[in-house]
Amino acid sequence: MLVITVDPTNSEKRLDNYIAQSQDLTRSESKHLIKSGQVSVNGKIIFKPAFNVKSGFEIKISKTIKGNICEKISYDNLSIIYKDEHILVIEKPSGLTVHHGTKHSSNTLADKLVVDFPEIHKIGERGRNGIVHRLDKDTSGLMIIALESSAYNKLQKMFKQREILKYYVALVFGKLLEQKGIIDAPIGRNPKNPVKQALINTGKESITNYVVIQEFDDVSLVEIHPETGRMHQIRVHFSGIGHPIIGDRKYGNGYMNSVISRQFLHAHKIKFHHPITGKTMVLKSPLASDLTKVIDCLQ
Hints:
19% of the residues lie in helices and 29% in strands. By secondary structure, it is of the alpha+beta class. Strands 7, 8, 9, 10, 11, 14, 15, 16 and 17 form a 9-stranded mixed β-sheet that branches. A hairpin with a 3-residue loop joins strand 7 and strand 8. It is globular, with a radius of gyration of 19 Å. Residues 64-75 have low confidence and may be disordered.
């Protein structure tokens, strides 16, 4: 059983759209779940894909899609960068999914957190387990986790008000025209492929800042600071300007796929004021080992 609580930023959407977007499914897959009676909203089974969901609604999906019942990846230990009684900052490895979904019903970060911190299941909406933001499955790097409710609520507000600054390192195709720049282009669901995002005029405001760190023959290493937090924002923005992230199977061009098994994207630094003490926090994470090997090959 998968339980999803509709968040305020995604309310007033069709049920099939919401499930498709939040669980990385196609519209036809989400419609099938609904029409087959596998989805309930606030305790009532809904058969109408166009049913509108609102903030706070509880969606339950009674089974996962066939062929995606479980994950094979298991992680024994979380790498903890910082911990106190209020918050935890970890390094998420590539390949670890953050939340349960119809394609990921076990071995997620949410599962691992409950094993290491049993009381964390009480923090946030059901299934959140203290998690206040996410990284894509194949993106590695820093994540903030709340260990108690007051920190969870404060961190949610801080993310919404853009008070938490996240910095990534990425390897992108080609050489950018400017050594420093801003990509300001709205992002929304791709009308031709509903499991992908795209640059579209009707999308939401999306802003990404970047600085080139180093250039190689055919690729560039960049530091990226997204001001907004849209789904797949960094990957979509750089793909949209003709410089897709190396190794990105969804938005990339296939360049160097033979030498890297996932997108070269790592959340390497995070800056924020502690949600309880107000102390300025600047935490960093070195590149994951698989990414440093790629850089070594380019030197």
